[in-house]
């Protein structure tokens, strides 16, 4: 297995790539939308709206947690997730600013 060269890129480019990855699957986009619209939710309550298994949904939430786009708290036996609105806005700003830079003029 080769070693990652990710760290050799500019920090801003790494951040943009991370956020693009976080938003890079329809399930994760819907999870964020659900948490913003419906408020704090469990995997069980969100799973009703997804055509994937709860385990897969949990994996997608784990990615969103990694990028700090969702917050969580334990309420035994459940984990309750909520949208981290400040970080979602920050992620969107990074992505929009990037698109503005690469968008062709004309």
Automatic annotation (TrEMBL):
<dbReference type="InterPro" id="IPR036390">
    <property type="entry name" value="WH_DNA-bd_sf"/>
</dbReference>
<dbReference type="InterPro" id="IPR036388">
    <property type="entry name" value="WH-like_DNA-bd_sf"/>
</dbReference>
<dbReference type="GO" id="GO:0003700">
    <property type="term" value="F:DNA-binding transcription factor activity"/>
</dbReference>
<protein>
    <submittedName>
        <fullName>Helix-turn-helix transcriptional regulator</fullName>
    </submittedName>
</protein>
<dbReference type="InterPro" id="IPR001845">
    <property type="entry name" value="HTH_ArsR_DNA-bd_dom"/>
</dbReference>
<feature type="domain" description="HTH arsR-type">
    <location>
        <begin position="8"/>
        <end position="103"/>
    </location>
</feature>
């Amino acid at each position: 297995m080769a070693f990652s060269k990710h760290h050799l890129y500019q920090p801003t480019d790494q951040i943009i790539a991370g956020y693009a990855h976080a938003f890079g699957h329809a399930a994760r986009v819907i999870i964020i939308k659900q948490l913003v619209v419906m408020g704090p939710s469990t995997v069980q309550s969100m799973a009703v709206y997804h055509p994937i298994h709860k385990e897969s949904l949990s994996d997608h939430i784990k990615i969103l947690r990694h990028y700090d786009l969702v917050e969580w708290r334990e309420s035994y036996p459940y984990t309750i997730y909520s949208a981290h609105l400040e970080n979602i806005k920050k992620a969107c700003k990074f992505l929009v600013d990037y698109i503005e830079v690469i968008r062709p003029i004309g």
